[in-house]
Amino acid sequence: MNIYPSKLLESAVTELSRLPGIGRKTALRLALHLLRRDLTEVEAFGNAVIKLRKEIRYCNECHNISDTEVCSICASAKRDRSTVCVVETIRDVMAIENTGQMSGVYHVLGGIISPMEGIGPEELTIESLVNRVAEGTVKEVVLALPTTIEGDTTNFYLYRRLKDFPLKITTIARGVSIGDELEFTDEVTLGRSILNRTLYEVMFAKKS
Amino acid sequence: MYLKKLTLTNFKNYSQADYQFTDKINCFVGNNGVGKTNLLDAIHYLSFCKSYFNPIDSQNIRHQEDFFAINGVYIRKEDSPEHLQCIQKRNHRKKFLLNKKEYDRLADHIGQFPLVMISPYDRDLINDGSELRRKYIDSVISQFDKFYLDDLINYHKALFQRNALLKTFSERKYFDTGELEIWDEQMIRLGTIIHEKRKTFLDQFIPIFRHYFNFISCEEEKVDILYQSQLSDGEYGALLADAVGRDRSAQYSTVGIHKDDLDFMISGYPAKRFGSQGQQKAFVIAIKLAQFDYTRNIKGFKPVLLLDDVFDKLDDLRVQQLISLVSENNFGQVFITDTSEDRIRKIFDNMEIEHKIFRISSAVSG
Ligand SMILES: [Zn+2]
Predict the structure, then answer these.
(1) Chain A: residue whose CA lies nearest to B157
(2) Residues with Cβ within 5 Å of ion ligand 1?
(3) Least CB-CB distance to A160: which of B146, B147, B178?
(4) Which of A118, A157, A188 sits opposite B182 (nearest CB)?
(5) Which residue of A21, A57, B10, B132 pairs with B62 in a disulfide if CB–CB is 3.0 to 4.6 A?
(6) Cβ of B186 and A186 within 8 Å?
(7) What are the residues facing B85 on neighbouring strands?
(8) What pTM was computed for the model?
(9) What are phi and psi of B115, to 5 degrees?
(10) 8 Å CB contact between B184 and B192
(11) What is the domain-level CATH number for residue A98?
């Protein structure tokens, strides 16, 4: 255990080291760094963290983080509200947004079904998704969940809850990465992508 | 395929060791406790990324050292050496590299450098619980069917989730068919595939096994391996549905391929209770030889064969039979451990087959 010259320093180090990926050594370095900065800068930093936690809200529609009651994506007139992309977390929304390929809106489940971690359908925003779909404007639900057995099982649960509505349910394609040599792709991924092959004509039409 | 060169650093009792092998017979001779079997285990590591004996990698690091490294040079295609490397540092993830490139998943390596080990511990296959027998056929099938391993891993994830859900139902005193059925669906899909593959594998494997048993034991006993699976009794979905009540009170899944077992039979009786010591030994050796044959047929080349202390533990007749297989050049590269250099010389010096004898002593390994 380190002996700190100041109790204030020690408590800052303790708090910083609670962050993911930060050990006590790094926490000490960060704390000493903050001490060398202007007071106003550090105040801005502290306030940003406090405001983040106190004032952030979750979108009423899609459960994405938001500064307002409805997030900027759901509020945008440019988005196609008939396509809803279902994702596990807010980070997935950001990842898909970065691709610029999703013109629809999102639905953040807040996790995937995993009884081992105590997560059942009740703990997720599944009811709210079903209600959104029941309103009737949604024509397609794109399932963009992890390709794990838990992700797959959650897909299946959602499918069962949504299958009686008049809409298309799709999942994102899985398989060989773009730019990968087939020779170096692992056997299982390669085999599964052969099983899930798609019509070339359809792919061609999408590209052009 | 053969192992040309092996270098050990801080592996078990070896601080530093270097060996150059022949592509035929390699014998490690020396007293008990000098670490002959550890050499076989190092070779096992290179094929399976793990020890045959001790599943805890860090316990295979030499006493008071920080890491072990196993380096092997294999020849698979003519004159193009391939470098395998396994490094385990204390409190670190195990690293496994092929030609200096680290594997993302160890499972991708399994089966590329096939190996069959025959060891005195094989008798556990007969005497231990069903889990060991399932693990055994799973490891054999996984060596040539990567989808099998993937499906098996996913089946077990779905099973653990289903079991956790059954516990949750009981603790929170509620029940929801929909929540259970989504896991049933995964287990039915994967379990049915695994069941079919186990059955197909055994159908092909058993005749080869019978042939080797009769050869090794010089007996015409009728031996058999019976595949016991609840899935043979009906459609998996129906079996799961029938078992819901039972599963709920047991708080775990009572039906599925995780309950499969193999019955080893000699003349219609269980080998475990009615087989003589000699018959039991011949039984497991025949299983391993059949594994060798089967793997060779599928891969198109011979796996490396490890014979740990078999000449000492078998009676003369069975030893003679095993040696005749070796002398007829049925195998590719073979590694043998024995306590008696005399016995090894008597066996191999009259044989036309190329062999190399390595004297292992504590002085060398220390
Ligand atoms: Zn929103």
Answers:
(1) A149
(2) A 59, 61-62, 64, 71, 74
(3) B178
(4) A157
(5) B10
(6) no
(7) B71, B97
(8) 0.84
(9) -150, 145
(10) no
(11) 3.40.1360.10
Q: Which of B57, B64, B63, B62 is nearest to B91 (CA)?
A: B57
Verify that A119 and A187 share a domain, yes or no: no
Q: Would you call B156 exposed, middle or buried from its count of C-beta atoms within 10 A (0-12, 13-18, 19+)?
A: middle
What is the predicted pLDDT for the residue at B165?
Answer: 97
User: Please, what's the b/e burial string for A157-182 (b: 16 or more CB within 10 A of its CB; e: otherwise)?
Assistant: bbeebbeeeebebebeeebbeeeeee
Pull the structure tokens for residue B117.
């080990």
Report yes or no on A91 lying in a domain. Answer: yes
Out of 1.20.120.160, 1.10.10.10, 1.10.530.10, 1.20.1050.90, select the CATH number for domain B126-302.
1.20.1050.90
For every residue of A96-147, DSSP letters joined together read: HHHHT---EEEEE-SS--BGGGTB-GGGTTHHHHHHHHHTS---EEEE---S
C-beta separation of B60 from B68 below 8 A: yes
Beta carbons within 8 Å of B219's beta carbon, 6+ residues apart? B213, B279, B282
DSSP-based three-state secondary structure for A46: helix
Co-location of A34 and A95 in the same domain:
no
Dist. CA B30–CA B80, nearest whole Å? 33
* Structural contact between residues A72 and A105, judged by C-beta atoms closer than 8 angstroms: no
Query: Which residue of chain B is at minimal alpha-carbon distance from A156?
Result: B182
On whether both A19 and A100 belong to a single domain, the answer is no
Question: Token match 């595949």: residue?
Answer: B227
Q: Which pair of structure tokens corresponds to residue A122?
A: 């009740």
Q: Which domain holds residue A182?
A: 173-208
**CATH 1.20.1250.20 assigned to B1-114+304-366:** no
Instruction: Kindly state the tokens that stand for B256.
Output: 């599925």
pLDDT averaged per 10 residues, chain B (length 366): 96 94 94 91 95 91 94 89 95 92 87 91 93 94 88 96 96 94 96 97 96 88 94 94 95 96 95 89 93 93 92 77 83 93 87 90 55
Distance from residue A64's CA to the centre of ligand 1 (Å)? 5
Write down the pLDDT at residue B108.
84
A149 domain residue, yes or no: yes
Query: Do A69 and A45 belong to one domain?
Result: no
What residue spans define the domains of chain B? Answer: 1-114+304-366, 126-302
Looking at the structure, tell me whether residues A119 and A81 fall in a common domain: yes
